[in-house]
Amino acid sequence: MKRLVVVGGGYGGTEVIRQLIMRGVRNIEVELICNKTSFENTIGGAELISEKTNLQELTYGLKELANYWNFELTIGSMDNVDLNEKRLKVGNKERNYDILVLALGSEPNFYHVKGANIAQPAYHLTDFIDINKKLRSSLDNPDIVVAGGGFVGLEVSAEMLDLFKAMDKKNKLIVVEKMTSVLPAYNNDSAKKIAMEHFTSLGVKFLLGNGIKEVGEEKLILEDGGEIDTDLTIWTAGVKGCVISSQITGANVHIGCIDVDERLLIKGSEDAFAIGDASYAIIGGKEAMKMAAEALLQAKTTSKNIALIAEGRRPGISHVPEYIVDYPKALLSMGQGKAMIIFGPNYVSVGASEYILKKRIDFQEIMERFPQ
Length: 372
Hints:
Blueprint: E1 2-7, H1 11-22, E2 28-34, E3 38-40, H2 47-50, E4 59-61, H3 62-69, E5 72-75, E6 78-82, E7 87-90, E8 93-96, E9 99-102, E10 106-108, E11 120-121, H4 125-137, E12 143-147, H5 151-167, E13 172-177, H6 189-201, E14 205-208, E15 212-215, E16 219-222, E17 227-229, E18 232-235, E19 239-241, E20 248-249, E21 253-254, E22 257-259, E23 272-274, E24 279-280, E25 282-283, E26 286-287, H7 292-310, E27 329-335, E28 338-343, E29 347-351, H8 352-367
Parallel strand pairs: 1-2, 1-9, 2-5, 6-20, 9-23, 11-18, 12-13, 12-18, 13-14, 22-24
Antiparallel strand pairs: 3-4, 6-7, 7-8, 10-19, 15-16, 16-17, 21-22, 25-26, 27-28, 28-29
Helix pairs in contact: 1-7
């Protein structure tokens, strides 16, 4: 029996186990190590702000999943792993492995901005619930600043606007983006233009090309020296890999992400993989985006290679990234029951049917992977 240890109970980690079960892979004992007790569908989290969904619809208990899928579950954080010795440490305990999958995810990136720790992050499901509570308890016409005009920043803005509309409550919403356009990571000028026009028409004010220098309780100081009043600052300015070099002996780490080859194996290893946001994957000149959909596909490739290892064969299947920086694919919530499809550098469409598609893919299909 080969001992497989999967670290991380998010999209990639749970999907590796599911794929192995679907493929009927034998001779594998699986342990999942996770610092949370539930899988969290964070891509649907923004709708917790507007109360269009609830926490139960976006979570699945890992203990329940372990009973269904027959794997060992350890709740805890990985302190370090030695790829040369094939050993990792969780708390005060060490365990050996034959095959390792690091699906550690990411964390908010505050870019060393002074005072950013007092801003409200928008990353975990509990963050979106906290935003809802703060908006519910705020006075009428609060000054709200969203730090970051990317995908999450716009979705958070859309859901806040829908909540205020349902509450018949006014607000002042400003989005501050360091780059010169909204959706700066998306290579689609039409999508940027439509998003800008849409949110501006709803009363959102944008400050582009000007980053935040300091976050205070009641004021933000911008890089150009300007100041903005704020009752609530929501931080959506980006994410970063959550790995430090000292945690991974025998691996190359780029800004918190682990360097992998075309098979998603950690470079220099033949039995340890890194997938999802934890990986730095440039394959065939294409850089994989940090997206749940890409993590799921990487898990599928990884499971195929694990199946080969279980048979005593060399893991030789290369991954083909489908969600890449140069050719974006996304479904962006625009609020008011509408969503935007971004497909490549040129195609974009907005409407109610796009929102229905988003709900199907980002909510139902993600959660229907688990036993119902």
